[in-house]
């Protein structure tokens, strides 16, 4: 018997079709984990993936041969890739098979921090979609918002609400992702503390909480809308039993996701409603424990009439013309002294979300107008919407890291170099702003973001 895996967990799993207790325990006794990244196609033409093995179910996911110190890679800070556990990237495959990328959606990622799946949704949903990335725990929202700023999409709103707050938005979203807090057994190989904390009682508490989160948030899903439910737990109580409960009590109908048999993903069927679920076991594939199931809402769902929402037309002001690639694709609004942009056509959504929820960030903060000019915001430096002709100060790796430490950059006496506001960049990808003055360069990297000296 394994010294590591709680016997009660294995006993229950042993009853599942396709589960191999010996291989499961053996893989947990091995040292060394798997590192994988998912590249940002909006930025990452400078990440060399030629020699990397691809994650089978995600075209932008790659395994790394070893884990580097990501803090020392400027491209990591620039949002060129996200370090994400490979099994979770299956959501990219689900989006494609369920045709969720074929038309613009309003999508809600309900349990979103630190942002792995939100950045994935940004990449894989239709580009004209609106993503609401929500996180309940206040201390985790900052990381979520920062990771989404790095990813650079303008069509995202970050909220900090209890799932029940979404009851005020009945029938509003086309797609709901609930990546639920769980007992965490799927992460045992990476997080040894989770083993000590695991108990059958904790599984039952998680299962109850998952039902509560789903029941509270499901009214915001439209009739015919799609729910993706996932956990990093192996427990049936948190997976297949939740799937049956969704069909029994929440008006949901299961949907299958075609998979390639060679990937090693185990398809299970829930006991009562035969809901297909996709289980990831580390002894069967290169990834950690994960479960995903998809559903369609078949129960009637009332929704509020968005046509009654009054909005003001606010074109992006002239001051933004030189800063944005397509300034007429956006409308602008203010948050305090700052100007933000969201894609045109989302005016009513912003109004609705502002009225009903606590917003941590909305669209892209572009800067602060002052004396007819713009003091650019850091978020604009990382945004995919920025003007391609903005001046760049190209840094080598040493100076890029010095910039990220918020250190001093030497004045560069290049008469043809940029003057005034410029993007400090590494391998052509912006890291943040500098101001080039005749005798010095001012470093505008946010102090809360600076990296420690290693
Ligand atoms: C599995 S993690 C989400 C990981 C994230 N989706 C990602 O891919 O990076 C679950 C999240 O649910 C949040 N959470 C905890 N309790 C919650 C509750 N009662 N309702 C909603 N979310 C909760 C946690 O703070 C955590 O950020």
TrEMBL record:
Binding site for S-adenosyl-L-methionine: 111-117, 135, 162, 179
Residues in coiled coil: none
Active site: 232 (nucleophile)
Pfam families to which the protein is assigned, alphabetical: Methyltr_RsmB-F (PF01189), Methyltr_RsmF_N (PF17125), Methyltranf_PUA (PF13636)
GO biological process, one term: RNA methylation
InterPro entries: Methyltr_RsmF_N, MeTrfase_RsmB-F_NOP2_cat, MeTrfase_RsmB-F_NOP2_dom, Nol1_Nop2_Fmu_2, RCMT, SAM-dependent_MTases_sf
Keywords: Cytoplasm, Methyltransferase, RNA-binding, S-adenosyl-L-methionine, Transferase
Location of the SAM-dependent MTase RsmB/NOP-type domain: 13-298
GO MF term list: RNA binding; RNA methyltransferase activity
Assigned protein family: Belongs to the class I-like SAM-binding methyltransferase superfamily. RsmB/NOP family.
Protein name as it appears in the record: 16S rRNA C967 or C1407 C5-methylase, RsmB/RsmF family
């Amino acid at each position: 018997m394994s010294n590591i895996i709680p016997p009660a967990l294995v006993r229950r799993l042993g009853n599942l079709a396709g589960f191999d207790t010996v291989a499961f325990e053996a893989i947990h006794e091995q040292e060394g984990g798997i590192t994988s990244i998912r590249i940002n196609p909006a930025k990452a033409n400078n990440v060399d993936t030629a020699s990397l093995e691809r994650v089978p179910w995600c075209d932008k996911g790659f395994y790394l041969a070893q884990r580097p110190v990501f803090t020392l890679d400027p491209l990591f800070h620039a949002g060129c890739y996200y370090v994400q556990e490979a099994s979770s990237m299956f959501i990219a495959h689900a989006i494609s098979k369920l045709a969720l990328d074929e038309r613009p959606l309003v999508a809600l990622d309900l349990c979103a921090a630190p942002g792995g799946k939100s950045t994935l949704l940004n990449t894989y949903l239709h580009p004209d979609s609106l993503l609401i990335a929500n996180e309940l725990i206040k201390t985790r929202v900052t990381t979520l918002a920062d990771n989404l700023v790095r990813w650079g999409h303008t069509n995202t709103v970050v909220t900090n609400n209890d799932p029940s707050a979404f009851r005020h938005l009945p029938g509003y979203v086309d797609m709901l992702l609930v990546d639920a807090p769980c007992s965490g057994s799927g992460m045992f190989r990476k997080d040894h503390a989770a083993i000590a904390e695991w108990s059958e009682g904790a599984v039952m508490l998680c299962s109850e909480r998952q039902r509560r989160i789903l029941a509270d948030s499901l009214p915001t899903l439209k009739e015919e809308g799609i729910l993706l439910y996932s956990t990093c737990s192996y427990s049936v109580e948190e997976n297949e039993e939740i799937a049956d409960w969704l069909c029994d009590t929440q008006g949901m109908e299961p949907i299958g996701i075609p998979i390639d048999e060679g990937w090693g993903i185990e398809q299970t069927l829930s006991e009562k409603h035969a809901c297909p679920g996709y289980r990831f076991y580390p002894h069967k594939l290169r990834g950690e424990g994960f479960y995903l199931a998809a559903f369609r809402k078949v129960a009637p769902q009332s929704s509020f009439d968005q046509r009654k929402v009054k909005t003001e037309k606010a074109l992006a002001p002239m001051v933004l013309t030189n800063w944005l690639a397509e300034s007429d694709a956006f409308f602008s609004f203010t948050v305090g002294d700052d100007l933000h942009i969201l894609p045109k056509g989302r005016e009513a959504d912003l109004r609705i979300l502002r009225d009903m929820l606590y917003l941590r960030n909305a669209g892209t903060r572009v800067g602060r107008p002052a004396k007819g000019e713009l003091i650019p915001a850091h978020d604009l430096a990382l945004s995919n919407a920025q003007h391609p002709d903005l001046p760049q100060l190209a840094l080598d790796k040493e100076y890029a890291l010095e910039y990220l430490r918020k250190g001093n950059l030497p004045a560069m006496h290049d008469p043809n170099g940029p003057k005034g506001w410029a993007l400090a960049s590494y391998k052509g990808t912006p890291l943040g702003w500098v101001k080039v003055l005749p005798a010095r360069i001012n470093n505008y990297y946010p102090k809360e973001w600076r990296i420690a000296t290693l």
